[in-house]
Amino acid sequence: MKNRERVNPEFLTTLDNFPGLSLNTDALDQIREGLKTLNPPVVQTEVIIEDVTIKGPDQNDLRLRVYKPQDVKGMLPGLLWIHGGGYVLGTVEQDDALCCKYVNEANCIVVAVDYRLAPEHPYPAPIEDCYAAVCWMVNEAAQLAIDVNKIGVAGSSAGGGLTAALTLLARDRQFPKIHLQLPLYPMIDDRNNTPSANEITEGMIWNQQLNEEGWKMYLGDLYGTDHIPSYAAPARATDYSNLPTTYTFIGQLDPFRDETISYVSNLVQAGVDVEFHLYPGAYHAFEGLNPDSPIAQYATNEYINAIKRGFERITQKSQTSEQKSKS
């Protein structure tokens, strides 16, 4: 396998055992069913998990999964979580354990969105579902015990792409105010021709070929045209100003490496506060696929702490602003 010798030894076993994927439409149903078996129910007592169904943007039933502490004290930060899966795979349940960690370790309330998937529901259905979810979270904040002054959005891979798109969309629609975003190794550039995309052409969990298949399904008739909105592919945005404080990371052997680096650079140049980590020897989604690896655990702990720190900084800025107004 090309680039295998560059992979950190901690991640080789998973890589060698990972089945090759093909995202043709005939295989999607089988892959989706197979992925469900990889996520057994989470057994825990610290977090309450509730399913809520709301009306989506097309009057579709949109399922949300709410995670909150058993004993909520006061108003807590709210985090919208968006699962990954190349815009064509994944379920809201797949990150149950992770969302429970967010609640327990970052002291927040999490809402995960079961957005519609392509190719059955191409752009803009998934991003509009995510927008409906964050609007619901803010509009129902009092009932959920969420502090509307501490709203975050996070997701990985395609969920990271939807995170980056959602903050652009919320900024431009002027509602709701999002204070923190974590687009983790985000899928944001449909052009699929960066140096890292051309470098990671096969294997490595996710690669240039799979990326092309995913984008074709997500964009539908828009694919290959010059009419791709930044809300579909955030790498095409021309204005990155007034976006939330950002945290992201990526593996050096991820085809999204260079589009992520460009995105980070664009945010920084637009005056957005950004923290970014690049992990050598790491492929796409390395931290989730190798949960027992010390490096993967480090990466996971880093971004969970980034959520906690991000919300704490909002409190500090608010207190500083109040003190200045009084003096």
Automatic annotation (TrEMBL):
It comes from the Bacteria. Keywords: Hydrolase. Pfam families: Abhydrolase_3 (PF07859). InterPro entries: AB_hydrolase_3 (IPR013094), AB_hydrolase_fold (IPR029058), GDXG_lipolytic_enzyme (IPR050300). Gene3D superfamilies: alpha/beta hydrolase (3.40.50.1820). One of its GO terms (molecular function) is hydrolase activity. Residues 79-286 form the Alpha/beta hydrolase fold-3 domain. The keyword Hydrolase applies. PANTHER family: AB HYDROLASE SUPERFAMILY PROTEIN C4A8.06C, ALPHA_BETA HYDROLASE FOLD-3 DOMAIN-CONTAINING PROTEIN-RELATED. This is Alpha/beta hydrolase. It comes from Lysinibacillus antri. The lineage of its organism: Bacteria, Bacillati, Bacillota, Bacilli, Bacillales.
